[in-house]
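Work Package 4 report. The design task specified in the project plan requires that, given a folded chain encoded as structure tokens, an amino acid be chosen for each position. We show below one input record used in the internal validation round.
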């Protein structure tokens, strides 16, 4: 113990630790703007390749009778054809305790860059609603006919509404998140509603419907039903290396594994009943472009074993760091063959494209400290970033 104390006094070691924590955080948290920019460049490079293989059938209107099946007859009459761009935005879990996120520890910068607070998230919802966006289920964008998969570009939506996919990355409530202002996990209250559970900075247990995206959005849609098309909410992108939704289901040999699994399954079931869908975010949050083919195969298999077994199959893969693999490459084919027919990256504007009748690629905009503070013009069709940032809790 004394040796450790001595070491800690040495400034050199201390700064090394700070740098290491900083690097660790950078690699853990979702996408970086740099990754997004790389993707933008990459897209330009690959543009000519993609053009030649773009699905011709994407432009053909799909069989609408199928798409409208779920609608109530009286509502069907009000739906009109929408063929414009489909926005897809994503968040990380929201900051419930800004005093922990922005406490000037080495992780604070990461929180300022990649997260939004509860109040900022609520203001974002107000703005999106005011600007006539309507949440849709991402699966509406996938046309599947036999083995052919094409992007659905013609949606039937309420008149005047613009489609929006909202996703949440890394809703695993990792250990570092619990220490830095996010909640601990999602649970169900006695009424079966999804709430968050956390231990607040004062040591008290807090069960709330006001500290996490899921209950906040559930509440918003309850108050504004026309913000959701057919009850759609958001897309939850999960890794597996620290379990799911705050349940450490990765600890498969732990004594209470079965209990944790049962509790997670209850929440998952409720989320599905209430309009939420799921995506793979890889098992270990690896950079799919950089890692070897074999490592990506292993990661994908492990995600299926430990996470798909809980949430069920999904057609959506959300690249960690927004780092997408080369279209048509061996890695790309492997992901598609694993059932992921919609592969989502990060980019500054809406992007939806089919590839060879077997996969769809889509971009998402990051809504976080970086975009709210430095890309206000780009965000303007969706929201007034100044209004969203009014809380003034950021460093
Ligand atoms: Zn991520």
């Amino acid at each position: 113990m004394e040796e450790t104390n001595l070491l800690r006094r040495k400034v050199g070691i201390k700064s090394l630790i700070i740098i290491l924590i900083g690097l660790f955080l950078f690699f853990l948290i979702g996408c970086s703007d740099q990754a997004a920019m790389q993707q933008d460049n990459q897209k330009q490079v690959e543009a000519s390749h993609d053009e030649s293989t773009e699905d011709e059938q994407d432009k053909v209107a799909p069989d609408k009778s199928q798409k409208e099946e779920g609608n109530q007859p009286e509502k069907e009459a009000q739906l009109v054809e929408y063929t414009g761009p489909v926005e897809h935005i994503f968040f990380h879990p929201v900051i419930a305790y800004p005093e922990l996120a922005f406490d000037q520890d080495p992780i604070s910068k990461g929180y300022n860059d990649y997260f939004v607070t509860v109040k900022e998230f609520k203001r974002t919802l107000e703005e999106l609603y005011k600007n006539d966006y309507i949440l849709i289920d991402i699966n509406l964008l996938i046309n599947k006919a036999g083995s052919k998969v094409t992007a659905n570009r013609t949606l039937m939506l309420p008149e005047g509404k613009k489609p929006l996919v909202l996703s949440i990355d890394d809703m695993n409530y990792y250990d570092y998140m619990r220490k830095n202002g996010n909640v601990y996990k999602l649970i169900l209250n006695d009424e079966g509603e999804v709430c968050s559970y956390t231990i607040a900075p004062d040591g008290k247990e807090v069960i709330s419907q006001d500290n996490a995206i899921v209950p906040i959005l559930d509440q918003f849609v309850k108050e504004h039903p026309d913000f959701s098309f057919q009850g759609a909410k958001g897309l939850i992108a999960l890794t597996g290396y620290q379990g799911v939704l705050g349940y450490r289901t990765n600890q498969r040999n732990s004594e209470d594994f079965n209990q944790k699994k049962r509790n997670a399954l209850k929440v998952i079931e409720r989320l599905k009943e209430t309009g939420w869908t799921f995506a793979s975010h890889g098992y270990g949050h690896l950079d799919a472009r950089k890692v070897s083919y074999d490592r990506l195969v292993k990661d994908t298999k492990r995600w299926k074993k430990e996470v798909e077994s809980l949430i069920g199959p999904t057609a959506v893969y959300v690249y960690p760091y927004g780092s997408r693999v080369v279209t048509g490459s061996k890695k790309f084919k492997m992901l598609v063959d694993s059932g992921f027919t919609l592969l989502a990256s990060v980019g500054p504007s809406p992007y939806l494209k089919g590839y060879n009748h077997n996969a769809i690629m889509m971009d998402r905009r990051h809504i976080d400290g970086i975009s709210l503070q430095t890309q206000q013009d780009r965000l303007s069709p969706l929201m007034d970033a100044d209004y969203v940032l009014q809380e003034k809790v950021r460093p």
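The chain has one domain: 2-391. Validation will be extended to a larger panel in the next phase.
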